[in-house]
């Protein structure tokens, strides 16, 4: 069985295990990452996690500002297969034509659902109860290429973006390993995507500004779960005539009947080991843990006590 010659395309830490798997199972000719950027508190120019690991493995690395800048260098490398995981750049048709087998991508959703840059976060925000991974062939369109294989898993009520990533990364490794084994045996699979596509757009800072008065408790909880990675979820908090944005660290849906007569944004209850119960547009939600600006994360009831918050205050009404 001939060992496949491959090129890996990836950038962040979540891509590193996929590079390591490819290094174990194939003859990796090159790793391609996004360009070095300022990182950390000192904002010093440093390589991304994939580049760091590739160099440790003794692999050649390219980190172009634009993929087209190094087209000739990549085209000069003999490779059978490309594998991309969270690379973050679009592949032009001339790049896709370079390897004889094509370029595989590991995507963290069950395509055609949640095409786009933030499938894990958007699965939670949009209230999905099932997700998975798709190993598919990249085409010029956005995540619309034929499938090699998919693997499913449930989304649990307690999952947030961080825990869901932690589950999907090994599931994706399992899928990629299976695809590589089948390709090494000469079995190429291309299954057209079926169904109506949904989208998973990149999250922006303004998406993290959440208002209990405008969202149902279920919607607010889903947004808070989905924003556990990326821009942090915040709600407006008004006290003594001043409004600040209070970051939510942990929330929980209230399943007990609430005070339907209270205005959205009203504090319904404050309880030790539970936090602050807030009325939403529909239903109510517990703010279990919060992170005030300039402070450390704290139990929500400690925040309430420190600010003199009490039941009936319309502190989250704005």
Structural features, described:
With 318 residues, the chain is α/β, with parallel strands linked by helices. 24% of the residues lie in helices and 27% in strands. It folds into 2 domains: 5-184, Rossmann fold; 205-307, Roll (Methionyl-tRNA Fmet Formyltransferase, Chain A, domain 2), CATH 3.10.25. The strands form 3 sheets. The protein has a 7-stranded mixed β-sheet with strand order 5-2-1-6-7-8-9. Strand 14 (284-291) and strand 15 (298-299) form a beta hairpin. Helix 1 (16-25) packs parallel to helix 6 and helix 5 (119-125) packs antiparallel against helix 7 (217-226). The longest helix has 24 residues, at 161-184. The model has no long low-confidence stretch (mean pLDDT 95).
Compile the SSE list and pairings.
Blueprint (H helix, E strand, L loop, with lengths): L4 E6 L5 H10 L1 E6 L4 E3 L4 E3 L2 H8 L4 E2 L8 H5 L5 E5 L7 H4 L5 E6 L11 H7 L4 E8 L9 E8 L6 H24 L32 H10 L7 E6 L2 E12 L13 E5 L3 E5 L4 E8 L6 E2 H8 L11
Parallel strand pairs: 1-2, 1-6, 2-5, 6-7
Antiparallel strand pairs: 3-4, 7-8, 8-9, 10-11, 11-14, 12-13, 13-14, 14-15
Major sheet summary line: 7 strands, mixed
Going by CATH, what is the homologous superfamily of the largest domain? Formyl transferase, N-terminal domain
Query: How many structural units, i.e. domains?
Result: 2
Low-confidence stretches: none
Structure annotation, total helices: 8
- Taking strands numbered 1, 2, ... along the chain, how are they ordered across the largest sheet? 5-2-1-6-7-8-9
Q: Could you give the order of the helices and strands?
A: EHEEEHEHEHEHEEHHEEEEEEH
Would you count the extended β strands for me? 15
Shape annotation: elongated
What structural class should be given to the helix and strand makeup?
Answer: alpha/beta
Strand content of the residues, in percent? 25-35%
Can you tell me the CATH class of the largest domain?
Alpha Beta
Helix content: 10-25%
């Amino acid at each position: 069985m001939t060992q496949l010659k491959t090129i890996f395309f990836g950038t962040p830490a979540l891509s590193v295990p996929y590079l390591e798997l490819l290094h174990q199972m194939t003859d990796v000719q090159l790793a391609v990452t996004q360009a070095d950027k300022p990182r950390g508190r000192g904002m010093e120019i440093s390589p991304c996690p994939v580049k760091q690991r590739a160099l440790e493995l003794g692999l050649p690395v390219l980190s172009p500002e634009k993929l087209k800048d190094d087209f000739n260098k990549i085209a000069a490398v003999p490779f059978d297969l490309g594998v991309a995981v969270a690379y973050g750049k679009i592949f032009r048709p001339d790049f896709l034509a370079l390897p004889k087998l094509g370029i595989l991508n590991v995507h963290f959703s069950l395509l055609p659902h949640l095409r786009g840059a933030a499938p894990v976060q958007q699965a939670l925000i949009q209230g999905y109860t099932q997700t998975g991974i798709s190993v598919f062939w990249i085409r010029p369109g956005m995540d619309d290429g034929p499938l090699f294989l998919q693997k499913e898993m449930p989304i649990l009520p307690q999952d947030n973006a961080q825990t869901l990533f932690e589950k999907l990364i090994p599931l994706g490794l399992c899928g990629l390993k299976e695809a590589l084994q089948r390709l090494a045996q000469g079995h190429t699979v291309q299954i057209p995507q079926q169904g109506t596509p949904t989208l998973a757009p990149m999250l922006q800072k303004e998406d993290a500004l959440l208002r209990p008065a405008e969202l149902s408790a279920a919607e607010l909880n889903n947004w808070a779960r989905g924003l556990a990675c990326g821009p942090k979820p915040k709600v407006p908090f008004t006290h003594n005539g001043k409004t600040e944005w209070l970051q939510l660290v942990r929330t929980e849906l209230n399943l007990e009947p609430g005070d339907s007569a209270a205005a959205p944004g009203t504090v319904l209850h404050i309880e030790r080991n539970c936090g602050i119960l807030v009325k939403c547009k529909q239903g109510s939600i517990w703010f279990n843990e919060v992170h005030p600006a300039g402070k450390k994360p704290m139990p929500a009831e400690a925040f309430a006590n420190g600010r003199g918050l009490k039941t009936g205050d319309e502190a989250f009404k704005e």
